[in-house]
Amino acid sequence: MSKLPNISTSIFTVMSKMAAEHNAINLSQGFPNFAVDEKLTAIVSKLAQEDIHQYTPMAGYPPLLSKIALLVKDSYQRNILPETEILVTTGATQGIFTAIQALVENNDEVLILDPSYDCYEAPVLLCNAKPVRVPLNNDYTPNWETIEATCSEKTKMIIINNPHNPTGKILTETDFEALEKLLEKYPKIILLSDEVYEYITFEQKHISVHTRELLRNRAIVVSSFGKTFHITGWKIGYLVAPEHLMMEIKKVHQFLVFSVNSVAQAAISAYLEETSVDKISDFYQQKRDYFRQLLSKSRFKLLPCEGTYFQVVCYEAISNENDVDFCKRLITEHGVAAIPISNFYENGKDLHLIRFCFAKDNTTLEEAARRLCKI
C-alpha cells in the first residue's frame, strides 16, 4: 500500500525526459544552461587537492555558516547566530522536507497557497497531517480573508513562496501586514517561507521574512545557493530559523543526511568572499526582457513576471487542448519543452497556461523563440 497514493512522478521529470527523447530545447525544468563563474570552478579545482573530503559538522561547514550570517546581515540587516540559527541542507527541497517532518505532527493542518511548487504536500502527508490548499486570486495575489477563514486551532504551519514559483509573483508590503495580523491572531502557527529566488527580482524588490520583526522569530526561511549562483546540480541550500525551531529541525536532519557535501560547502564559503549577489537581478532581468521581446510577435500572451527565472504564458489563442497535452505536443511537433501550470494546482485547474524557464544562454532563447513564433 502506497503512503503517497495520489502522488506520481514529478512533471519536471516527465517533461525533461520527453525533451531529451525528442531532442527538444528544454525550457521546462528550472536549471541554467550557461557556464558557472570561472572563479567558482577555480576554487573547486584548488579545493579538490586539499584536505576537505571528510564529514563537516552536522549543521554545516563553520566558515560557511559565518558567511551565511554575514550574507543575511548584508542583504536584510538581520543578525543571526551561525552556531544555532543556520542549517546547511542538501538543497532547498531537503530543507523544506526536514522542517515539515520536524515540526508538523499527526492531524495538524498545513496551509499551502494554490498553485504551489510540488514539494510541499508530500512531507505533510508523510506526517499524517492534512495539507489544506488555499486558492490565490486570479491575478495570483493572496486572498487574506480566505486564508484567515481557513485557519483554525489545527493549523500548525503556513507555507509561502516568495518570489512565487510558478507565477513569478512577489508579495507586497500590504501582504506582509495582513500576514502579521493573521499570525498575531494565531500565535501557535509556524511560518515556512520559501525564498529560493530571493535574489532574482525585477522592478519590485523582494521583501524577505528576514526583515519582518513580527514574523522571523516564528519562521523558517529557506534559501538556495543552487538558484543564486546557477549551480542547481550542487544541491546546496540553507535554512535560517530561531534556535527553538532549529533544534527540532536538526534532530531530523542528522538522521536524514547528517552533513552536506564538504567540498561544495568549502567552495561556496570561499566564493562568497569573491562575489556579490547585488548584480544577479540585473542579469536575469536582461534575460527576462530579451525573452519577452523575442516572444512579443508570437501568439502566446505573456503574463507579468516580477521575479524568478520563469515566464508564464497563455496559449488559448493557439489551442483548446488541456495544458499537459499542449506541452507534450509542443515537444513532439515544435521541439520546445515547457511545464503545464495545472500540475501546480491541487485539483489540476487548467487555465491554458504554461511556464518557460529563461535561465538559458541567448542562443538557446533565440532558437526556442524562433520555434515558438512559428506556431
TrEMBL record:
Keyword list, A-Z: Aminotransferase, Pyridoxal phosphate, Transferase
The family this protein is said to belong to: Belongs to the class-I pyridoxal-phosphate-dependent aminotransferase family.
Span of domain Aminotransferase class I/classII large: 24-372
| Domain of life from the UniProt record | Bacteria
Provide the protein name.
Aminotransferase
Q: Which organism is it from?
A: Flavobacterium seoulense
Question: GO CC terms on record?
Answer: cytoplasm
One MF annotation (Gene Ontology) recorded for this entry:
kynurenine-oxoglutarate transaminase activity
Q: Does the keyword Transferase apply?
A: yes
InterPro entries, alphabetically?
A: Aminotransferase_I/II_large, Kynurenine-oxoglutarate_AT, PyrdxlP-dep_Trfase, PyrdxlP-dep_Trfase_major, PyrdxlP-dep_Trfase_small
CDD domains named among the record's database cross-references: AAT_like (cd00609)
Concerning NCBIfam families, the annotation shows: PRK09082.1
Among its keywords, does the record have Transferase? yes
Q: Which cofactor does it need?
A: pyridoxal 5'-phosphate
Q: Which Gene3D superfamilies match?
A: Aspartate Aminotransferase, domain 1, Type I PLP-dependent aspartate aminotransferase-like (Major domain)
